[in-house]
Amino acid sequence: MPVLNILLVLGAYAGNEFLSMQLFCQPVRWAALVLLASVGAFLVWPWLPARPRLLRYLALLLQGALLPIGIYCIWFLGPGALVVGLVLGFLLVPLLAWVPVVVAGQAVWRGLHSALPGSIVVFGLGVSGPLLAQGWAEWQFQQVEAAVAALPPSQRYELAALSRVLPRTYMAERLAGTLFKYHNYFDDFDGWRPPLHDPLVNVCLWLRAGQQYNKPGVRQANPLLMGHQPIAPIWPANVLSEQVALYKQLFPQEPVKADCACSHNGDAQGYLYWRP
Asked: How far apart are CA 7 and CA 9, in angstroms?
């Protein structure tokens, strides 16, 4: 099973990274570190029984994060992806949708059945870490919502008014960078895609509206979404001008553009040639 787990993880990474349509874009730095640490702990666990107890506790703590990570992955893909994986399993690649379930399920089993004293508590602390982070993100999201709601309706899309009232926080930066820097919604036809993936922002948005920009309610979900057009095969750069202007106004010290593309297909590579 340890070798199979390694092959499953490598297969999921390769399938997401190198297939023509990359479903999960580049995770932001903190998300990448959490993912690497938790998956790394999961993969090395079978070789840790003879290691110091402190190291085993640390590995168990890190594996606790895999439960909310696995739930997030299935939420992002949609439960239907699991059904498709079973129906088209003979193609092998669709079965990769089950990797988060398999990994998270094994992690939970280890947390519940480990011989380490207090293993359930340690595993539970690992589970709570991402949940506490999500609570912090929700608090900041509500601060942004309150700041925008305090403005008269006629000023809620004016740069000067927004710049005056908005907090310069982590969540405000993420929300202002939507459409061109942070990829918040799964969509097969969204043109060149913003390449950075932040789960904290995505969950806050999902709790308020659907997962696609062309569905009703999304403007209300993201209080800093300045303007958009219906999904087209390729996003023209001028659609993003208002959003980029807001981002520059609020966070002039931050780079407007990420230094990577979301996938290896043509529309995503087009992002590399965009000049904000």
From this structure: 6
- Count Cβ atoms within 10 A of the Cβ of residue 86 and give its class: 0-12 exposed, 13-18 middle, 19 or more buried: exposed
pLDDT at 188: 46
Q: At what angle do helices 99-113 and 53-64 cross, to 10 degrees?
A: 140
pLDDT tens profile 142-169: 999 999 999 998 888 889 999 999 999 9
Direct distance between the N- and C-terminal alpha carbons of the chain, in angstroms, rounded to an integer: 48
Supply 97's token pair. Answer: 């949708």
For 115, list phi and psi in degrees, rounded to 5: -80, -5
Q: Where are the domains of the chain?
A: 2-127, 132-273
Give me the residue label for tokens 């399993």. 89
Residue 86: the pLDDT is 82
Pairing of strands 196-197, 26-27: parallel
